[in-house]
Amino acid sequence: MANENFPLIFERSKKGRTSYSLPEMDVPTVELEKELDDSYIRKTPADLPEVSELEIMRHYTGLSNRNYGVDSGFYPLGSCTMKYNPKINEDVARMPGFSHIHPHQEPEGVQGAMEMMYDLQESLKEITGMAEVSLQPAAGAHGEWTALLMIRAFHEANGDFNRKKVIVPDSAHGTNPASATVAGFESVTVKSNDKGLVDLEDLKRVVGDDTAALMLTNPNTLGLFETEILEMAEIVHGAGGKLYYDGANLNAIMGYARPGDMGFDAVHLNLHKTFTGPHGGGGPGSGPVGVSEELAAFMPKPVIVKNDDQYVFEYDRPKSIGRVKPYYGNFGIYLRAYTYIRTMGAEGLKKVSEYAVLNANYMMRKLEQAYVLPYTQHCMHEFVLSGKKQKKLGVRTLDIAKRLLDFDYHPPTIYFPLNVEEALMIEPTETESKETLDGFIDTMLQIAKEVEEDPEIVQEAPHHTVVKRMDETTAARKPILRYKKI
Q: What contacts 236, CB < 8 A, 6 or more positions away?
Protein backbone atom coordinates (compact mmCIF):
# COMPACT_ATOMS: atom_id res chain seq x y z
CA MET A 1 0.00 0.00 0.00
CA ALA A 2 2.75 2.46 0.90
CA ASN A 3 6.39 2.70 -0.11
CA GLU A 4 9.55 3.62 1.76
CA ASN A 5 9.70 7.07 0.16
CA PHE A 6 6.14 8.01 0.93
CA PRO A 7 4.48 6.19 3.83
CA LEU A 8 0.72 6.64 3.98
CA ILE A 9 -0.99 8.19 6.95
CA PHE A 10 -1.55 4.87 8.76
CA GLU A 11 2.10 3.94 8.36
CA ARG A 12 3.06 7.26 10.00
CA SER A 13 0.84 6.56 13.02
CA LYS A 14 2.41 6.32 16.48
CA LYS A 15 0.29 5.83 19.57
CA GLY A 16 -0.24 8.97 21.60
CA ARG A 17 0.48 11.53 18.86
CA THR A 18 -2.15 14.09 18.00
CA SER A 19 -2.62 16.81 15.39
CA TYR A 20 -5.80 18.50 16.57
CA SER A 21 -6.97 20.66 19.42
CA LEU A 22 -10.73 20.83 19.95
CA PRO A 23 -12.48 23.42 22.11
CA GLU A 24 -14.02 22.22 25.32
CA MET A 25 -17.51 20.78 24.67
CA ASP A 26 -20.22 23.07 25.99
CA VAL A 27 -22.99 20.44 25.86
CA PRO A 28 -23.12 18.05 28.85
CA THR A 29 -22.38 14.49 27.72
CA VAL A 30 -25.48 13.22 29.53
CA GLU A 31 -27.72 15.68 27.67
CA LEU A 32 -26.08 14.81 24.35
CA GLU A 33 -26.66 11.10 24.87
CA LYS A 34 -30.33 11.78 25.60
CA GLU A 35 -30.71 13.48 22.21
CA LEU A 36 -29.02 10.70 20.23
CA ASP A 37 -30.43 7.32 19.39
CA ASP A 38 -28.26 4.63 21.01
CA SER A 39 -27.35 3.22 17.59
CA TYR A 40 -25.50 6.45 16.75
CA ILE A 41 -23.22 6.31 19.80
CA ARG A 42 -19.86 4.62 19.18
CA LYS A 43 -19.03 1.93 21.70
CA THR A 44 -15.36 1.55 20.74
CA PRO A 45 -12.78 4.18 19.66
CA ALA A 46 -12.46 4.75 15.93
CA ASP A 47 -9.44 3.11 14.33
CA LEU A 48 -7.85 6.35 13.16
CA PRO A 49 -4.16 7.14 12.64
CA GLU A 50 -2.41 8.98 15.46
CA VAL A 51 -0.07 11.53 13.92
CA SER A 52 1.41 14.93 14.67
CA GLU A 53 0.37 18.06 12.79
CA LEU A 54 3.72 18.03 10.95
CA GLU A 55 3.20 14.44 9.80
CA ILE A 56 -0.32 15.06 8.55
CA MET A 57 0.82 18.17 6.67
CA ARG A 58 3.60 16.18 5.00
CA HIS A 59 1.12 13.45 4.14
CA TYR A 60 -1.33 15.74 2.33
CA THR A 61 1.41 17.86 0.74
CA GLY A 62 2.98 14.65 -0.59
CA LEU A 63 -0.36 13.53 -2.03
CA SER A 64 -0.86 16.90 -3.72
CA ASN A 65 2.60 16.68 -5.29
CA ARG A 66 1.63 13.34 -6.81
CA ASN A 67 -1.44 14.81 -8.43
CA TYR A 68 -1.31 16.07 -12.03
CA GLY A 69 -3.21 19.14 -13.11
CA VAL A 70 -3.09 21.91 -15.67
CA ASP A 71 -1.13 24.06 -13.19
CA SER A 72 1.65 21.46 -13.07
CA GLY A 73 1.95 20.40 -16.70
CA PHE A 74 0.59 20.11 -20.24
CA TYR A 75 -2.85 18.50 -20.37
CA PRO A 76 -3.70 17.67 -24.03
CA LEU A 77 -6.93 15.84 -23.19
CA GLY A 78 -8.91 16.04 -26.42
CA SER A 79 -12.54 17.15 -26.23
CA CYS A 80 -12.11 18.31 -22.63
CA THR A 81 -10.47 21.73 -23.13
CA MET A 82 -8.20 21.43 -20.11
CA LYS A 83 -6.78 24.93 -20.31
CA TYR A 84 -5.28 27.20 -17.70
CA ASN A 85 -7.71 28.73 -15.21
CA PRO A 86 -6.61 32.35 -14.56
CA LYS A 87 -6.12 33.06 -10.87
CA ILE A 88 -8.02 36.35 -11.07
CA ASN A 89 -11.10 34.15 -11.39
CA GLU A 90 -10.34 32.63 -8.01
CA ASP A 91 -9.84 36.04 -6.43
CA VAL A 92 -13.27 37.20 -7.60
CA ALA A 93 -14.98 33.97 -6.54
CA ARG A 94 -13.60 34.49 -3.02
CA MET A 95 -14.80 38.06 -2.58
CA PRO A 96 -16.87 38.12 0.64
CA GLY A 97 -19.81 39.79 -1.11
CA PHE A 98 -20.08 36.68 -3.28
CA SER A 99 -18.66 33.86 -1.18
CA HIS A 100 -20.50 34.69 2.07
CA ILE A 101 -24.04 35.03 0.73
CA HIS A 102 -26.65 32.32 1.18
CA PRO A 103 -29.20 31.03 -1.37
CA HIS A 104 -32.03 31.54 1.12
CA GLN A 105 -31.44 35.29 1.23
CA GLU A 106 -34.14 37.42 -0.31
CA PRO A 107 -33.34 38.77 -3.83
CA GLU A 108 -33.40 42.31 -2.45
CA GLY A 109 -30.33 41.50 -0.34
CA VAL A 110 -28.24 39.90 -3.11
CA GLN A 111 -28.79 42.28 -6.01
CA GLY A 112 -25.09 42.34 -6.87
CA ALA A 113 -24.99 38.57 -7.29
CA MET A 114 -28.17 38.58 -9.34
CA GLU A 115 -26.87 41.38 -11.54
CA MET A 116 -23.75 39.30 -12.23
CA MET A 117 -25.87 36.26 -13.19
CA TYR A 118 -28.10 38.39 -15.40
CA ASP A 119 -25.10 39.95 -17.14
CA LEU A 120 -23.56 36.49 -17.62
CA GLN A 121 -26.78 35.34 -19.28
CA GLU A 122 -26.66 38.36 -21.59
CA SER A 123 -23.02 37.69 -22.49
CA LEU A 124 -23.72 34.04 -23.27
CA LYS A 125 -26.69 35.05 -25.41
CA GLU A 126 -24.42 37.29 -27.46
CA ILE A 127 -21.68 34.66 -27.75
CA THR A 128 -24.09 31.91 -28.88
CA GLY A 129 -26.66 33.93 -30.81
CA MET A 130 -29.53 32.48 -28.77
CA ALA A 131 -32.64 34.30 -27.54
CA GLU A 132 -32.58 33.24 -23.88
CA VAL A 133 -30.17 31.49 -21.51
CA SER A 134 -30.70 29.48 -18.32
CA LEU A 135 -27.76 29.11 -15.95
CA GLN A 136 -29.32 26.32 -13.90
CA PRO A 137 -27.80 23.10 -15.34
CA ALA A 138 -24.82 21.87 -13.34
CA ALA A 139 -22.68 20.38 -16.12
CA GLY A 140 -22.52 19.66 -19.83
CA ALA A 141 -24.50 16.41 -19.85
CA HIS A 142 -27.01 17.99 -17.46
CA GLY A 143 -27.37 20.81 -19.99
CA GLU A 144 -27.93 18.29 -22.80
CA TRP A 145 -30.69 16.60 -20.81
CA THR A 146 -32.28 19.94 -19.90
CA ALA A 147 -32.32 21.09 -23.53
CA LEU A 148 -33.82 17.79 -24.69
CA LEU A 149 -36.56 18.09 -22.06
CA MET A 150 -37.41 21.52 -23.46
CA ILE A 151 -37.47 20.13 -27.00
CA ARG A 152 -39.74 17.30 -25.87
CA ALA A 153 -42.02 19.76 -24.07
CA PHE A 154 -42.18 21.91 -27.21
CA HIS A 155 -43.25 19.00 -29.40
CA GLU A 156 -45.82 17.78 -26.86
CA ALA A 157 -47.24 21.30 -26.44
CA ASN A 158 -47.90 21.20 -30.19
CA GLY A 159 -49.63 17.83 -29.88
CA ASP A 160 -46.72 16.11 -31.63
CA PHE A 161 -46.23 13.03 -29.45
CA ASN A 162 -44.76 10.89 -32.20
CA ARG A 163 -41.31 12.48 -32.13
CA LYS A 164 -39.39 9.90 -30.14
CA LYS A 165 -36.05 9.78 -31.98
CA VAL A 166 -32.91 11.85 -31.52
CA ILE A 167 -30.26 11.64 -34.25
CA VAL A 168 -26.63 11.47 -33.08
CA PRO A 169 -23.52 11.33 -35.33
CA ASP A 170 -21.25 8.30 -35.02
CA SER A 171 -18.43 10.61 -33.89
CA ALA A 172 -20.47 12.22 -31.09
CA HIS A 173 -19.63 12.46 -27.42
CA GLY A 174 -20.97 9.50 -25.50
CA THR A 175 -23.11 11.79 -23.37
CA ASN A 176 -25.28 12.64 -26.41
CA PRO A 177 -27.00 9.26 -26.83
CA ALA A 178 -27.01 8.81 -23.05
CA SER A 179 -28.77 12.15 -22.50
CA ALA A 180 -31.28 11.32 -25.23
CA THR A 181 -32.10 8.02 -23.54
CA VAL A 182 -32.46 9.59 -20.07
CA ALA A 183 -34.75 12.25 -21.57
CA GLY A 184 -37.04 9.52 -22.89
CA PHE A 185 -35.92 9.38 -26.52
CA GLU A 186 -34.53 6.69 -28.77
CA SER A 187 -31.06 7.40 -30.15
CA VAL A 188 -30.48 6.96 -33.90
CA THR A 189 -26.99 7.07 -35.42
CA VAL A 190 -26.09 9.06 -38.53
CA LYS A 191 -22.87 8.08 -40.30
CA SER A 192 -19.83 10.19 -41.12
CA ASN A 193 -18.58 10.48 -44.69
CA ASP A 194 -15.01 9.94 -45.89
CA LYS A 195 -14.13 13.51 -44.82
CA GLY A 196 -15.17 12.90 -41.20
CA LEU A 197 -18.30 15.05 -41.51
CA VAL A 198 -21.98 14.17 -41.24
CA ASP A 199 -23.11 12.28 -44.34
CA LEU A 200 -26.03 14.34 -45.69
CA GLU A 201 -27.50 11.43 -47.64
CA ASP A 202 -27.53 9.27 -44.52
CA LEU A 203 -29.06 12.16 -42.56
CA LYS A 204 -31.86 12.40 -45.12
CA ARG A 205 -32.38 8.66 -44.72
CA VAL A 206 -32.80 8.71 -40.93
CA VAL A 207 -34.78 11.98 -40.62
CA GLY A 208 -38.56 11.66 -40.56
CA ASP A 209 -41.77 12.69 -38.86
CA ASP A 210 -40.61 10.84 -35.75
CA THR A 211 -37.45 12.98 -35.43
CA ALA A 212 -37.36 15.14 -32.30
CA ALA A 213 -33.88 16.57 -32.76
CA LEU A 214 -30.39 16.25 -34.20
CA MET A 215 -27.62 16.54 -31.60
CA LEU A 216 -24.44 17.93 -33.10
CA THR A 217 -21.07 19.28 -32.04
CA ASN A 218 -19.53 21.84 -34.41
CA PRO A 219 -16.63 21.58 -34.85
CA ASN A 220 -17.21 17.88 -34.37
CA THR A 221 -15.35 15.44 -32.17
CA LEU A 222 -12.75 14.88 -34.88
CA GLY A 223 -11.94 18.58 -34.63
CA LEU A 224 -13.49 19.29 -38.04
CA PHE A 225 -15.94 22.06 -38.85
CA GLU A 226 -19.25 20.84 -40.29
CA THR A 227 -19.23 22.97 -43.43
CA GLU A 228 -22.70 21.80 -44.51
CA ILE A 229 -24.40 22.82 -41.27
CA LEU A 230 -26.94 25.10 -42.97
CA GLU A 231 -28.01 22.23 -45.23
CA MET A 232 -28.35 19.99 -42.17
CA ALA A 233 -30.49 22.60 -40.43
CA GLU A 234 -32.74 22.79 -43.48
CA ILE A 235 -33.14 19.01 -43.59
CA VAL A 236 -33.98 18.67 -39.88
CA HIS A 237 -36.22 21.74 -39.69
CA GLY A 238 -37.96 20.68 -42.87
CA ALA A 239 -38.97 17.46 -41.12
CA GLY A 240 -40.20 19.39 -38.06
CA GLY A 241 -37.25 18.51 -35.81
CA LYS A 242 -34.97 20.73 -33.75
CA LEU A 243 -31.19 21.20 -33.78
CA TYR A 244 -29.28 20.83 -30.54
CA TYR A 245 -25.69 22.13 -30.22
CA ASP A 246 -23.26 20.35 -27.92
CA GLY A 247 -21.09 23.27 -26.80
CA ALA A 248 -18.10 21.19 -25.73
CA ASN A 249 -16.07 22.49 -28.68
CA LEU A 250 -17.07 26.15 -28.57
CA ASN A 251 -13.44 27.04 -27.77
CA ALA A 252 -12.72 26.83 -31.50
CA ILE A 253 -15.26 29.33 -32.81
CA MET A 254 -15.87 32.09 -30.24
CA GLY A 255 -16.22 35.43 -31.96
CA TYR A 256 -16.22 33.85 -35.42
CA ALA A 257 -19.38 31.74 -35.55
CA ARG A 258 -22.48 31.40 -33.38
CA PRO A 259 -24.69 28.31 -33.03
CA GLY A 260 -27.80 30.48 -33.31
CA ASP A 261 -26.66 31.75 -36.71
CA MET A 262 -26.07 28.15 -37.84
CA GLY A 263 -29.72 27.30 -37.22
CA PHE A 264 -29.49 25.64 -33.82
CA ASP A 265 -32.52 25.82 -31.53
CA ALA A 266 -30.76 24.93 -28.28
CA VAL A 267 -27.17 24.92 -27.05
CA HIS A 268 -25.35 24.07 -23.85
CA LEU A 269 -22.04 25.61 -22.84
CA ASN A 270 -19.37 24.14 -20.57
CA LEU A 271 -18.35 27.00 -18.29
CA HIS A 272 -15.81 24.64 -16.71
CA LYS A 273 -14.12 24.15 -20.09
CA THR A 274 -14.37 27.03 -22.55
CA PHE A 275 -14.84 29.65 -19.83
CA THR A 276 -12.09 28.49 -17.42
CA GLY A 277 -13.92 27.17 -14.40
CA PRO A 278 -11.77 24.51 -12.67
CA HIS A 279 -12.20 21.25 -14.54
CA GLY A 280 -11.76 17.68 -13.36
CA GLY A 281 -11.92 15.80 -10.09
CA GLY A 282 -15.67 15.34 -10.28
CA GLY A 283 -16.74 18.94 -10.46
CA PRO A 284 -18.24 21.33 -9.90
CA GLY A 285 -19.13 22.14 -13.49
CA SER A 286 -21.73 24.31 -15.10
CA GLY A 287 -23.70 23.80 -18.31
CA PRO A 288 -25.93 26.78 -19.11
CA VAL A 289 -28.45 26.26 -21.89
CA GLY A 290 -29.37 28.80 -24.54
CA VAL A 291 -32.58 28.46 -26.55
CA SER A 292 -34.43 30.04 -29.45
CA GLU A 293 -37.58 32.13 -29.06
CA GLU A 294 -39.71 29.05 -29.74
CA LEU A 295 -38.24 27.16 -26.79
CA ALA A 296 -37.95 30.07 -24.34
CA ALA A 297 -41.31 29.40 -22.70
CA PHE A 298 -40.11 25.95 -21.62
CA MET A 299 -36.93 27.06 -19.83
CA PRO A 300 -36.29 25.87 -16.25
CA LYS A 301 -37.70 28.19 -13.64
CA PRO A 302 -37.09 30.45 -11.91
CA VAL A 303 -35.69 32.69 -14.63
CA ILE A 304 -33.59 35.73 -13.70
CA VAL A 305 -35.11 38.86 -15.22
CA LYS A 306 -34.61 42.60 -14.80
CA ASN A 307 -37.58 44.74 -13.85
CA ASP A 308 -36.57 48.38 -14.07
CA ASP A 309 -33.56 48.53 -11.72
CA GLN A 310 -34.36 45.33 -9.84
CA TYR A 311 -33.24 41.77 -10.59
CA VAL A 312 -35.82 39.14 -9.64
CA PHE A 313 -36.51 35.42 -9.90
CA GLU A 314 -39.51 34.92 -12.18
CA TYR A 315 -41.57 31.83 -11.31
CA ASP A 316 -44.66 32.51 -13.39
CA ARG A 317 -43.72 30.26 -16.31
CA PRO A 318 -46.65 27.86 -16.87
CA LYS A 319 -44.92 25.95 -19.70
CA SER A 320 -41.60 25.58 -17.88
CA ILE A 321 -40.07 22.12 -17.51
CA GLY A 322 -39.51 23.09 -13.87
CA ARG A 323 -36.40 23.40 -11.75
CA VAL A 324 -33.48 21.16 -12.79
CA LYS A 325 -31.02 22.15 -10.03
CA PRO A 326 -31.44 23.14 -6.36
CA TYR A 327 -31.30 26.90 -5.84
CA TYR A 328 -29.86 28.29 -9.07
CA GLY A 329 -26.87 26.14 -9.99
CA ASN A 330 -23.14 26.34 -9.28
CA PHE A 331 -22.72 30.01 -8.45
CA GLY A 332 -18.93 29.93 -7.98
CA ILE A 333 -18.42 28.71 -11.55
CA TYR A 334 -20.62 31.55 -12.85
CA LEU A 335 -18.28 34.02 -11.14
CA ARG A 336 -15.21 32.48 -12.73
CA ALA A 337 -16.78 32.45 -16.20
CA TYR A 338 -18.07 36.01 -15.83
CA THR A 339 -14.62 37.23 -14.75
CA TYR A 340 -13.02 35.44 -17.70
CA ILE A 341 -15.45 36.95 -20.23
CA ARG A 342 -15.08 40.46 -18.83
CA THR A 343 -11.29 40.11 -18.67
CA MET A 344 -11.00 38.86 -22.25
CA GLY A 345 -13.61 41.05 -23.91
CA ALA A 346 -14.97 40.41 -27.39
CA GLU A 347 -11.62 40.69 -29.16
CA GLY A 348 -9.92 38.55 -26.53
CA LEU A 349 -12.40 35.72 -27.02
CA LYS A 350 -11.71 35.83 -30.76
CA LYS A 351 -7.99 35.54 -30.01
CA VAL A 352 -8.71 32.51 -27.84
CA SER A 353 -10.21 30.71 -30.82
CA GLU A 354 -7.46 31.87 -33.17
CA TYR A 355 -4.66 30.50 -31.01
CA ALA A 356 -6.54 27.30 -30.12
CA VAL A 357 -6.90 26.55 -33.84
CA LEU A 358 -3.35 27.63 -34.66
CA ASN A 359 -1.83 25.46 -31.93
CA ALA A 360 -3.83 22.39 -32.97
CA ASN A 361 -2.89 22.69 -36.63
CA TYR A 362 0.78 23.26 -35.77
CA MET A 363 0.91 20.08 -33.69
CA MET A 364 -1.08 18.06 -36.21
CA ARG A 365 1.27 18.87 -39.09
CA LYS A 366 4.33 18.08 -36.99
CA LEU A 367 2.97 14.70 -35.86
CA GLU A 368 1.48 13.44 -39.11
CA GLN A 369 4.99 12.38 -40.20
CA ALA A 370 5.08 9.67 -37.51
CA TYR A 371 1.41 8.75 -36.91
CA VAL A 372 -1.51 8.09 -39.22
CA LEU A 373 -3.69 11.16 -39.76
CA PRO A 374 -7.08 9.80 -40.87
CA TYR A 375 -8.50 13.18 -41.95
CA THR A 376 -5.95 15.44 -43.60
CA GLN A 377 -7.83 18.74 -43.93
CA HIS A 378 -7.09 21.61 -41.54
CA CYS A 379 -8.51 20.98 -38.10
CA MET A 380 -10.05 23.37 -35.61
CA HIS A 381 -9.13 23.27 -31.90
CA GLU A 382 -8.27 19.57 -31.72
CA PHE A 383 -7.26 16.70 -33.99
CA VAL A 384 -7.30 12.92 -33.98
CA LEU A 385 -4.36 10.70 -34.86
CA SER A 386 -4.42 6.93 -35.28
CA GLY A 387 -1.86 4.58 -33.76
CA LYS A 388 -2.66 1.76 -36.20
CA LYS A 389 0.83 2.09 -37.75
CA GLN A 390 2.34 1.44 -34.32
CA LYS A 391 -0.18 -1.32 -33.64
CA LYS A 392 1.26 -3.30 -36.56
CA LEU A 393 4.56 -3.29 -34.66
CA GLY A 394 2.90 -4.63 -31.50
CA VAL A 395 2.41 -1.32 -29.67
CA ARG A 396 -1.07 -0.12 -28.84
CA THR A 397 -2.32 3.41 -28.36
CA LEU A 398 -2.67 2.56 -24.66
CA ASP A 399 1.05 1.79 -24.53
CA ILE A 400 1.88 5.16 -26.10
CA ALA A 401 -0.28 6.90 -23.51
CA LYS A 402 1.49 5.03 -20.69
CA ARG A 403 4.90 5.93 -22.11
CA LEU A 404 4.00 9.63 -22.09
CA LEU A 405 3.76 9.41 -18.29
CA ASP A 406 7.49 8.74 -18.14
CA PHE A 407 8.07 12.18 -19.69
CA ASP A 408 5.74 13.93 -17.19
CA TYR A 409 2.97 14.52 -19.73
CA HIS A 410 -0.68 13.74 -19.20
CA PRO A 411 -1.77 11.52 -22.10
CA PRO A 412 -4.32 12.74 -24.63
CA THR A 413 -7.74 11.13 -24.91
CA ILE A 414 -7.38 7.63 -26.35
CA TYR A 415 -9.72 5.24 -28.20
CA PHE A 416 -12.17 8.06 -28.85
CA PRO A 417 -13.94 8.94 -31.06
CA LEU A 418 -14.95 5.37 -31.77
CA ASN A 419 -14.89 5.73 -35.54
CA VAL A 420 -11.08 6.07 -35.58
CA GLU A 421 -8.99 2.95 -35.00
CA GLU A 422 -6.45 3.32 -32.16
CA ALA A 423 -7.45 6.97 -31.74
CA LEU A 424 -5.28 9.62 -30.08
CA MET A 425 -7.31 12.78 -29.59
CA ILE A 426 -5.18 15.85 -28.88
CA GLU A 427 -6.30 19.35 -27.86
CA PRO A 428 -3.48 21.78 -26.97
CA THR A 429 -5.78 24.78 -26.23
CA GLU A 430 -4.72 28.40 -26.68
CA THR A 431 -2.95 28.81 -23.34
CA GLU A 432 0.14 26.71 -24.12
CA SER A 433 3.38 28.22 -25.42
CA LYS A 434 5.20 27.09 -28.56
CA GLU A 435 7.97 25.72 -26.35
CA THR A 436 5.49 23.48 -24.55
CA LEU A 437 3.98 22.31 -27.83
CA ASP A 438 7.44 21.57 -29.25
CA GLY A 439 8.38 19.58 -26.15
CA PHE A 440 5.30 17.39 -26.47
CA ILE A 441 5.82 16.98 -30.23
CA ASP A 442 9.45 15.89 -29.69
CA THR A 443 8.33 13.36 -27.08
CA MET A 444 5.66 11.90 -29.35
CA LEU A 445 8.21 11.59 -32.16
CA GLN A 446 10.68 9.94 -29.78
CA ILE A 447 8.04 7.41 -28.71
CA ALA A 448 7.26 6.64 -32.36
CA LYS A 449 10.98 5.99 -32.90
CA GLU A 450 11.10 3.75 -29.82
CA VAL A 451 8.19 1.73 -31.21
CA GLU A 452 10.31 0.95 -34.25
CA GLU A 453 13.65 0.37 -32.49
CA ASP A 454 12.80 -0.87 -28.97
CA PRO A 455 9.06 -1.59 -28.69
CA GLU A 456 9.36 -3.28 -25.28
CA ILE A 457 10.23 -0.01 -23.56
CA VAL A 458 6.85 1.33 -24.72
CA GLN A 459 4.92 -1.88 -24.11
CA GLU A 460 6.08 -2.02 -20.49
CA ALA A 461 5.70 1.70 -19.68
CA PRO A 462 5.47 3.61 -17.42
CA HIS A 463 8.87 3.06 -15.83
CA HIS A 464 9.40 6.18 -13.70
CA THR A 465 6.03 6.81 -12.06
CA VAL A 466 5.17 6.05 -8.42
CA VAL A 467 2.65 3.44 -9.57
CA LYS A 468 3.74 1.21 -12.43
CA ARG A 469 1.39 -0.36 -14.97
CA MET A 470 -1.61 -1.86 -13.27
CA ASP A 471 -3.68 -4.91 -14.03
CA GLU A 472 -6.55 -2.84 -15.40
CA THR A 473 -9.01 -5.73 -15.64
CA THR A 474 -8.59 -6.62 -11.98
CA ALA A 475 -8.61 -2.94 -10.98
CA ALA A 476 -11.97 -2.51 -12.73
CA ARG A 477 -13.55 -5.73 -11.47
CA LYS A 478 -12.06 -5.86 -7.98
CA PRO A 479 -11.28 -2.26 -6.97
CA ILE A 480 -9.78 -1.55 -3.57
CA LEU A 481 -11.85 1.37 -2.34
CA ARG A 482 -10.53 1.78 1.20
CA TYR A 483 -7.29 1.47 3.11
CA LYS A 484 -6.31 -2.00 4.29
CA LYS A 485 -3.57 -2.62 6.82
CA ILE A 486 -0.97 -5.13 5.71
A: 167, 203, 207, 211, 213, 214, 242, 243
Pick from 30-44, 215-229, 445-459: least confident: 30-44
| pLDDT tier at 1, thresholds 50, 70, 90 | very low
- 397 close to 412: Cβ distance less than 8 angstroms: no
Q: Which helix (H) or strand (E) holds 190?
A: strand 186-190
Terminal Cα-to-Cα distance of the chain (whole angstroms): 8
The full length of the chain comes to 486
Phi, psi dihedral angles at 114 (to 5 degrees): -70, -35
User: Which residues are bridge partners to 410 per DSSP?
Assistant: none
Q: What is the pLDDT of residues 31-42, one digit of tens each?
A: 666 677 778 778
CA–CA dist 483, 123 (Å, integer): 47
pLDDT at residue 26, as a whole number: 80
DSSP labels, 238-304: HTT-EEEEEETTGGGTTTT--HHHHT-SEEEE-TTTTT-----TT------EEE-GGGGGGS-SSEE
| CB hemisphere CA count around 124 (13 angstroms) | 30
Task: Please list the residues that pair with 289 across neighbouring strands.
Answer: 134, 268
CA dist 389 and 155 (Å) reads 48
DSSP string, 422-458: TEEEE---SSS-HHHHHHHHHHHHHHHHHHHH-HHHH
Describe the chain by its helix, strand, coil percentages, rounded to 5. Answer: 40, 10, 50
Catalogue all structural domains in the chain, each as residue range(s) with its CATH number: 1-67 (no CATH), 87-343 (3.40.640.10), 351-475 (3.90.1150.10)
Average pLDDT, the chain: 93
| pTM, two decimal places | 0.90
Give the per-residue pLDDT at 2.
47
Q: Are strands 242-247 and 132-134 parallel, antiparallel or unpaired?
A: unpaired
Cβ contact 176:140 at 8 Å = no
Note the pLDDT tens digit of each residue in 145-191. Answer: 999 999 999 999 999 999 999 999 999 988 999 999 999 999 999 99
Residue type, position 76, single letter: P
